[in-house]
Structures are given as structure tokens and as C-alpha cells.
Write a sequence for this structure.
């Protein structure tokens, strides 16, 4: 699937990408996971480094297979994680991703999940926090092919902006060619609740501590049930320290 | 000993003057009630003393336990011993009461140069204070105020007050939304936690009924942004009988 020519902004999936950072890494060799029927696997990625990272992950899940991907995208420069998943009958794909940035970096998660057969489940939870001039992006498409009845798809995408100079781009997308389909998508961009911050301050919490506590809870939603939940949360907490 | 001195306080909200020369002195060991009609500035007084953003002091001074209160950040005011009981306690998803209160208390202790409480020590304290307000400790393991009824939120405010053990509690309509039994429990909780020689309470309320349980030493009528009348507990009864208009005029 690797295209040889460097993408441009006209490519939908690269509309908000950091193309200058992408160029030296291009083309990207996809990492491919093929799961047999009823096989279960998972992957946890913690990226907090100072090098640009672009990864493409391809998942092919046979009937009843399950794959869980958990991701902390919190490097100080460009970080892009693209996932293309194809789900067989009754297969289940879970994505829990948190993106944390406060420099000028672009952090993005790009997904395309194809429900190719009936009764597959996909759950995507993405929580992004951006301060400074950071941009956090989620471009996610759920494609339900003809005959993939009983599809259960969910995209829960929320972004928190800590400064008015930060950017969040969220684009959940549904393309459905089957009739009996449940696809929920929620998408919101907001700021920390000023009332809650004052409430917490009034009980004695300094502003940085209060923000950290709220953001920790916000980010934790992405890692519920992850095999390496604790390691992900610890790394996220450390990254949050730099944000507030 | 004087705990709080408010002198000629002026404050605006969104450039609109609300407090217009309010003066009030609270001595240690005293319970004061502030009553007044809607829009008199009662809640504004509480928020201004708590340091809520958007409540701007344009004149006057406030001295709390010997410090210039208005020079302190909201969290520093809390550490100095000021507790504001909210009329509408805020929900904080994903953060448990236990975690929130332990971190709050330890932040206060740290700023006072005291050792932090361990998890075990904190839970013991929380259990004790929750029992005082007849609240199940399990409720404090839930996210802050989330899914709590109006009355449960108010009770939880009092549990928090017990845990944080302030010198001065400003309780903004803590009685609203409480049924008769809860009102009594909250009233007894206020007495148990705050009726001490070194503490003081400022009760902001519309009604007399809470004052049946927490007997005030002084009752003030706030109207038009200043205190227009001060009396003893009997003033609250007179207000209840004759209304604000007749008494404040």
C-alpha cells in the first residue's frame, strides 16, 4: 500500500501532517499483523522521545480475532501513527490513544477501520491535550462494507486545549454500506473547566496540581483495560508534568 | 481575637459593582449569619473572599488571621485556613474524592511546613469525618460530586470541611436542597467541626431554618452590597416574620 511519492496536503490523510518532518522518513514500511481466527494480540506503544516518528500499522483480523492497540503519542516533535484495520466476522479491534503536546509539534492518529464481515466490533477512544503551539489530530474513518450487518463501531474523540494558540483537528468519518449497523461517534474540543479549577484551588490545590489531576483523569480514559495500563499512565503522567 | 476583618470592601463582577462598601468583623469562636434578598451580593461576598477569577476587588481591605487575604492566590487562602462551601459543588469526572482531598490536604500541609499524610492516615481521617456527617466512606471513592444528589453534594462539602479543618468556613447556602433530616445532620456537622474557640463560621443563607441548628452569635442583613443591619439570633426570626424589605429599610 506504500505510495512512493511524498504525500501532499491534498491527500486527506495528510492534510494536517508535518510534511517537512515526514519527508526524510518517507516512504514508510507498514508493520503488518495478521491474526488467525479467534487469535488475540495487542500492542502498546509509548512514544515520548525527541525524534520524529511515523508508523503505519496494518491489521488483518480473521473471524473472532481480537487486537488491542494502546498508544501514548507524546514526543516533542512530529509523531504520526496510522492504523489500517480489516475486521472479519465477529472480530474486535480496540484503539486507546492519548496525545500530549505543548511545543510546536504535530501529533496525529490516523485510522481506517474496515468492517468487512458481520458482527465485528471496533472501539476507538482518543484523548488529546495540546498546549503552546502544538497541533493534535485525529482522522478516523470507519468503513462498513456491504453485508457487514451487526457492525458495532464506536469513535470517542475528545481534545483539550490548554492555550488559545494550540490546535486540535478531529475528523471522525463513517462510510456505511450495510443496513443493520450501530456506529457511534462523539467528538469534542474543549478547555479545562474553570469552575472545577477554582473549586480545586479553593480546597488547596495549586493550579498546576489541579490541572494535572484533571488531565490525568481525562487521559486515563484512553487506557482503560490496557494490558500495560500502569506503564502507559505513568508515562502519560510524566509527560503531563511538562504540559501544565 | 479577631479572625477576619473586612473593611469597606468594594467588588465588581463583569464591571458591575456588587459589593459597595461592606464591612464586617468576625472574632474567633463566633458564628455569623449573613441574610439578605436575592441579588444582594451574598454569594459575591463568598466568591470574592475565596478569590474566584472574575470577582474583582476595587476597594477596601480584608485581613484574615493577620494576613492580607486579597494578596493571596485562591489555593494559598485555602492553606491559610479559609474554606468556602459551595452553593453548587462542582463535578470532577475521573477524579475520586479520596484522591482529590488527599492531594488537597497534603498541598495545604506542605505549604504550612507539615508532613504529608500517608494513604492509610488519610483514609482513617476521611472515615471519621464521613461518619460525622453520616456519609458512607464508599461514596468518597467515587468521582467528585458526580451523580450525587443535591443533598449528598452539600453533605460531601461538610465532610470536606471536616477533613481540611479550616479556621474559617464561609458556607454559601449550604442549607439549600437539603431535606429536614439532612439539614439537621449538616447543622450538627457544622457545630462538631467548627464550633471551637479558635474557629469562626460565616453562614450565607436565605432562611432561618439552618439557624435552628447552628445558632448564630450575630446576624447581618446584606442589601445593596453592604451590611445594613446587625443583630443577634433574634434578628433572623424578625426577618422571617416581617421580610427583608421591612427590616432592611
Amino acid at each position: 500500500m506504500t505510495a512512493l511519492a511524498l504525500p501532499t496536503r491534498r491527500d486527506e490523510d495528510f492534510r494536517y501532517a508535518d510534511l517537512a518532518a515526514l519527508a526524510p522518513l518517507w516512504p514508510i514500511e507498514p508493520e503488518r499483523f495478521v491474526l488467525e481466527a479467534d487469535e488475540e494480540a495487542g500492542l502498546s506503544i509509548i512514544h515520548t522521545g525527541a525524534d520524529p516518528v511515523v508508523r503505519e500499522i496494518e491489521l488483518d483480523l480473521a473471524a473472532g480475532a481480537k487486537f488491542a492497540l494502546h498508544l501514548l503519542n507524546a514526543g516533542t516533535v512530529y509523531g504520526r501513527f496510522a492504523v489500517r484495520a480489516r475486521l472479519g466476522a465477529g472480530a474486535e479491534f480496540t484503539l486507546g490513544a492519548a496525545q500530549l503536546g505543548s511545543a510546536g509539534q504535530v501529533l496525529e492518529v490516523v485510522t481506517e477501520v474496515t468492517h468487512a464481515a458481520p458482527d465485528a466490533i471496533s472501539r476507538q477512544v482518543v484523548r488529546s491535550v495540546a498546549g503552546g503551539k502544538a497541533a493534535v489530530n485525529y482522522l478516523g474513518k470507519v468503513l462498513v462494507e456491504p453485508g457487514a450487518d451487526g457492525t458495532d463501531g464506536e469513535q470517542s474523540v475528545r481534545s483539550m486545549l490548554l492555550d488559545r494558540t494550540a490546535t486540535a483537528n478531529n475528523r471522525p468519518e463513517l462510510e456505511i454500506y450495510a443496513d443493520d449497523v450501530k456506529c457511534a461517534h462523539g467528538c469534542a474540543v474543549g478547555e479545562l473547566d474553570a469552575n472545577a479549577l477554582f473549586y480545586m484551588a479553593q480546597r488547596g490545590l495549586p493550579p498546576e496540581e489541579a490541572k494535572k489531576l484533571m488531565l490525568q483523569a481525562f487521559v486515563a480514559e484512553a487506557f482503560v483495560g490496557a494490558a500495560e495500563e500502569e506503564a502507559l499512565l505513568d508515562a502519560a503522567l510524566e509527560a503531563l508534568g511538562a504540559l501544565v | 481575637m479577631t479572625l477576619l476583618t473586612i473593611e469597606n470592601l468594594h467588588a465588581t463582577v463583569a464591571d458591575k459593582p456588587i459589593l459597595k462598601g461592606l464591612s464586617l468583623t468576625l472574632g474567633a469562636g463566633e458564628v455569623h449569619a449573613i441574610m439578605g434578598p436575592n441579588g444582594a451580593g451574598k454569594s459575591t461576598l463568598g466568591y470574592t473572599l475565596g478569590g474566584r477569577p472574575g470577582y474583582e476587588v476595587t476597594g477596601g481591605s480584608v485581613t484574615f488571621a493577620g494576613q492580607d487575604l486579597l494578596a493571596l492566590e485562591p489555593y494559598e487562602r485555602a492553606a491559610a485556613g479559609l474554606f468556602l462551601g459551595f452553593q453548587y459543588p462542582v463535578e470532577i469526572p475521573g477524579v475520586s474524592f479520596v484522591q482529590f482531598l488527599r492531594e488537597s490536604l497534603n498541598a495545604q500541609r506542605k505549604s504550612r511546613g507539615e508532613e504529608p499524610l500517608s494513604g492509610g492516615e488519610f483514609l482513617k481521617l476521611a472515615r471519621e469525618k464521613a461518619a460525622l456527617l453520616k456519609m458512607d466512606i464508599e461514596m468518597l471513592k467515587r468521582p467528585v460530586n458526580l451523580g450525587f444528589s443535591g443533598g449528598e453534594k452539600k453533605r460531601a462539602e461538610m465532610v470536606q470541611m471536616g477533613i481540611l479543618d479550616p479556621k474559617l468556613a464561609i458556607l454559601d447556602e449550604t442549607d439549600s436542597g437539603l431535606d429536614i433530616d439532612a439539614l439537621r445532620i449538616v447543622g450538627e456537622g457544622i457545630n462538631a467541626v467548627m464550633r471551637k474557640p479558635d474557629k469562626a463560621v460565616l453562614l450565607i443563607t436565605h432562611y432561618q431554618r439552618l439557624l435552628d441548628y447552628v445558632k448564630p452569635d450575630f446576624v447581618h442583613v446584606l442589601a445593596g452590597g453592604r451590611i445594613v443591619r446587625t443583630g443577634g439570633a433574634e434578628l433572623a426570626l424578625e426577618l422571617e416574620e416581617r421580610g427583608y424589605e421591612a427590616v432592611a429599610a
